[in-house]
Amino acid sequence: MFVARRATRRVSPRPRAVAVTLPSVALAQLEAASRALLSPHASPSAEAWIHDAGALVRDLVGGEAVVIAAPGSAIVSTDAPDVAAESVAYVEAITQDGMYFTDPVVNTWHDMRRATGLEAFSWDINQRMIETHGFGVPQSPIMSDVLMGRRLHEFVGLLKTTPAGDAMVWILGHTRGGFRFGDGTVEVLQALVPSFRAGLAALAQLAGPALALDTLTEAVAVYNTDGRALHRNVALVAMLRDEPESILVEAALTTLVQDVRALAFPRRFQVPGPPLRAEREIPTARGRYTIRATLVPAGALVADECMVVTVALAAAPRLPEPGALRERFGLTKREAEVAALIAAGLPNDAIADRLFIAPGTARRHTEGVLGKLGVGSRTAAAARLLGAS
Q1: pLDDT for 4
Q2: What single DSSP character describes residue 76?
Q3: Does some domain include residue 50?
């Protein structure tokens, strides 16, 4: 199956163009993978970013497992740890120029890849490349022992050498030609190359500022003016992890960033004015979040204009128990549950979501609570429910 060819043969490493039509589900997966690759600083670390993005790429192409490497880091995998561990055994060195292996076939391929600028690869592409140097795939210990020894006979991937080292997403499969898009799989990966490049560039660009932001106790995120997350500092990641209703905070962050993005574009063609600021508040049972965004000029934090978003949490007062409210104010069981959420500052839509009832039902219960409390507004009701009046 694998025949060595004379070294004088010249073979292009570029994939042959194959027309690929993606169904709507695959298009959604492609978009999700692209967004993940574009946003390295939305993850707590470079390793977590490339791991999560790699899993989305694996699911997109229908692979069995994904093996990844962040720039300057070792090869790792959560669903093929044996492949990763044994591949690492063949790594001779990890330098800024990339990985170097004791496996001569893989080392030859890496040299060719660097020389040609190849970023999306496949089993067939790699095989054609090494054949020009007189090698066959079975001559590679990594291929024959690590992969084929586990009946893994197919792979595709993304690989790029950065100033910090090699970054890799390596998707493995059992059957030759068994990926979801067949011969067109590498073409689908090629569509992700620009996102992969941009994500790695953002990772390098924000490395210094990200380290500084991670020392802050205030929760901070950085977005570019297209609304893409560049970095979330350690404090923000911890805050959202501890918030049971983090989805509400995430939604408010997204809305605020889009609002500021819409305001930022006209400014690009005008004389710079004072810093642009925007603010939103979102209540949860844990407290009230104040989210503020500032448009930062190019060069102040990163090379381009960006948005810095801060998230502050004012702890919520101790909320009354629905049972106590029911007894004190003569409420029904459901009205008492609604009253407790009114005291927390939640609007009717959020109350409906929390209690799994229709918005109209939440509104009727709210009106019933206001009537029994003898107040005319939600603010007055909250104050009385909290014992402030």
Answers
A1: 33
A2: B
A3: yes
